[in-house]
Design a protein that fits this description.
323 residues, alpha/beta, Quinone Oxidoreductase, Chain A, domain 1, Rossmann fold, 7-stranded mixed sheet, 6-stranded parallel sheet, 10 helices, globular
Length: 323
């Protein structure tokens, strides 16, 4: 089969298209013929081993898993002998933040990590419906959301941000979204109640205060935003922040809350991928969630896709067409 291989860490140029052995599923796994995958921030960080301590998981000196990729959609070609909930021919999608090896024509994955694709979306839409949505949901389930609260989403057009806007509207939250001029109508179509155009004004000068601020692109900080938080408000970022401050602030800010107006940060450590994907599947079936797709590339042009994603200007998701 064709697969994208990298044998050492580095920029997108380390990726090579090669012929490799087709994997064989274990008893509790399925073999999926990949139709579509994506290139996302997780993938870009993985091939560069960023942050450095990620090497403790991915491999200290070279990658343990040489086929990158996290999101996928495709059709089951073979099942392991103990698989009972899926069958050959099922259309499935999924996500594994530790690496699924989806930048290839085939992958094997555990039965419980493959979700049946809703009938009302394509393989491309399915592939783009997991990573950003999973991380967005893990912003939301880390706070005590209540109907009618005010939330600001910075970076509302990325994979995480566009998913967060839609999920917040599902929970009846008043959403202020930050984006550029060209994406205002898109963000409104996702459900944003109010839009701040960052090309014309800095959202940190906003006149409103919020129960929560979700920084889906990690381009701000708690200290820049804390004056926008109501007492008891929470700031969450998708990025480690300057000098990895977002690792330590969730520990420090609850201790010094009286000094900072009872405001704090929370770490959105993602958990329970299946719970996230089952929620997204349900919302897709109800017509309440739709993945935003920026560009599509063939597998042979995946290096260009990585370069584009690394620019940090993508809108929603970048899809790779495999089959």
């Amino acid at each position: 089969m064709k697969a994208i291989i990298y044998t050492h860490y580095g920029p997108p140029d380390v990726l090579q298209l090669k012929e490799v052995e087709k994997p064989i599923p274990k008893d509790n796994e399925v073999l999926v013929k990949i139709h579509a995958t994506t290139v996302n921030r997780t993938d870009c960080a993985t091939i560069r081993a960023i942050p450095f301590f990620a090497r403790l998981v991915t491999g200290l000196f070279k990658p343990k898993k040489q086929i990158p990729g996290t999101e996928f959609s495709g059709k089951i070609e073979t099942i392991g002998k103990s698989v009972s909930s899926l069958k050959v021919g099922d259309k499935v999608f999924g996500f594994d933040d530790s690496g699924s090896g989806s930048h290839a024509q085939y992958l094997t994955i555990k039965e419980d990590k493959a979700i049946i694709i809703p009938d009302n979306i394509t393989y491309e839409q399915a592939a783009a419906s997991s990573e950003g949505a999973h991380y967005a949901y893990n912003f939301i389930n880390k706070v005590d959301l209540k109907k009618g609260q005010n939330v600001l989403v910075n970076g509302a057009t990325g994979a995480i941000g566009s998913a967060a806007v839609q999920l917040l509207k599902y929970f009846d939250i008043n959403v202020t979204a930050v984006c550029s001029t060209r994406n205002i109508e898109l963000v409104k179509s996702l459900g944003a109640d109010r839009v701040i155009d960052y090309t014309k004004e800095d959202f940190i000068n906003d006149y409103k205060c919020y129960h929560y601020i979700f920084d889906a692109v990690g381009k701000s900080s708690f200290f820049k935003c804390k004056h926008l938080l109501q007492p008891g408000g929470i700031y969450i970022s998708s990025d480690l922040g300057y000098m990895s401050q977002n690792i330590f602030l969730p520990i420090v800010t609850p201790i010094i809350k009286p000094l900072i107006g009872n405001r704090k940060t929370v770490s959105p450590i993602p958990t329970d991928i299946n719970k996230s994907l089952l929620l997204i599947k349900s919302l897709i079936e109800q017509g309440k969630f739709k993945a935003v797709i920026d560009k599509s590339y063939p597998l042979e042009q995946i290096v260009e896709a990585y370069r584009y994603v690394e620019k940090g200007q993508k809108v929603g998701n970048v899809v790779i067409i495999v089959e």
